[in-house]
Write a structure and sequence with these properties.
The chain is of the alpha+beta class. It folds into 2 domains: about 110 residues; about 110 residues, no CATH class. It is about 20% helix and about 40% strand. It is built from 4 helices and 14 strands. The strands form 2 sheets. An 8-stranded antiparallel β-barrel has the order 1-2-3-4-6-7-8-9. Strands 10, 11, 12, 13 and 14 form a 5-stranded antiparallel beta sheet that branches. The radius of gyration is 44 Å and the shape is elongated. The relative contact order is 0.10.
């Protein structure tokens, strides 16, 4: 009897366990492991800039001006520079310097040892022009100032080119009144008449007994800038371009033909050389009297 009861209990336990297994919650999770997220791509390194390889002169290319001189700076090769300076001495004469070198970015200095200076006379009245080489392999230096837009030039072979400061064409002048002339045209004309007397005395000496001077025109700032030659002079606030007509009375014994050179004619009485014409620039005289002097005098701008 006990064996029968044990067998019945064993069968009941088996069915109970089977029922529990059937009521267990179903595992709906995906047995396949989820793929690991792919790492974000690292940003590609930016290409190195050109700051370390760019020709340092590229920050200074352009035209610079100093009174009657103009300087042109341009790149040459990967790290060099070519610089030329033209300095007008009259309406048809100028000197030109051409040099090259490398700009030291630490000292902002360009040293050169290959400068060629040439004096140039432009053709006039049918006469041929000339170009004369003054020297070669000249030495000197240019110091660049980025903050002020200037270049300071010293040429070891030319005393006139000692620490000459050029200003970049696009740079604002230090003096905001730079464009304004210090005198009116009428006041300048009076100074021109006085300065012309001194000029003619220097030019003719005792060959001229008397002179009469008539100022025909004093150029305004706008007219200066519109004239290519005058624009290259870069005239300052105390400089005045002008046109003048004048007459000369020869001293006794003077060969009157000497006074007819260039232009002019004799009056009806044959006593005065008239219709003399010229152009020039009136400049303040830093050496004392007279207060103003005539420079760049010729027959046309």
């Amino acid at each position: 009897m006990k064996k029968i009861i044990s067998i019945i209990l064993a069968i009941v336990m088996v069915f109970a366990l089977a029922a529990c297994a059937g009521n267990a919650p179903e595992d709906k999770s995906d047995p396949t492991p989820a793929p690991a997220p792919s790492p974000e791509p690292s940003p590609e390194p930016e290409p190195a800039g050109d700051e370390d390889t760019q020709n340092p002169i590229m920050d200074f290319i352009g035209e610079y001006y100093a009174n009657r001189a103009v300087m042109n700076v341009e790149p040459m090769g990967d790290d060099g520079a070519k610089v030329s300076v033209q300095w007008s001495s009259s309406y048809n004469e100028y000197s030109e310097w051409v040099m090259s070198g490398r700009l030291d970015p630490e000292t902002m200095t360009l040293e050169y040892s290959d400068c060629v200076k040439t004096d140039v006379v432009l053709p006039e009245d049918g006469a041929s022009g000339t170009e004369t080489v003054v020297y070669e392999n000249g030495t000197g230096r240019l110091v660049f100032d980025a903050e002020n837009g200037t270049v300071s030039w010293t040429d070891d072979n030319d005393e006139n080119a000692e620490n000459v400061v050029f200003m970049l064409d696009s740079a604002e002048p230090e003096n905001p009144e730079y464009e304004a002339k210090l005198m009116s045209s009428e006041e300048a004309a009076e100074q021109i008449e006085t300065a012309m007397q001194y000029y003619l005395e220097e030019a003719y000496g005792d060959k001229v007994f008397d002179a009469r001077i008539y100022v025909e025109k004093v150029y305004t700032r706008e007219e200066e800038l519109a004239n290519e030659t005058l624009a290259s002079y870069n005239l300052g606030a105390d400089e005045y371009a002008f046109e003048v007509r004048y007459e000369l009375k020869p001293s006794e014994g003077t060969d009157i033909n000497e006074l007819l050179v260039g232009n002019g004619s004799l009056d009806e009485d044959g006593e005065w050389v008239v219709d003399k014409y010229g152009v020039g620039v009136l400049r303040a005289n830093d050496d004392g009297q007279p207060e103003y002097i005539i420079t760049d005098f010729g027959t046309g701008f």
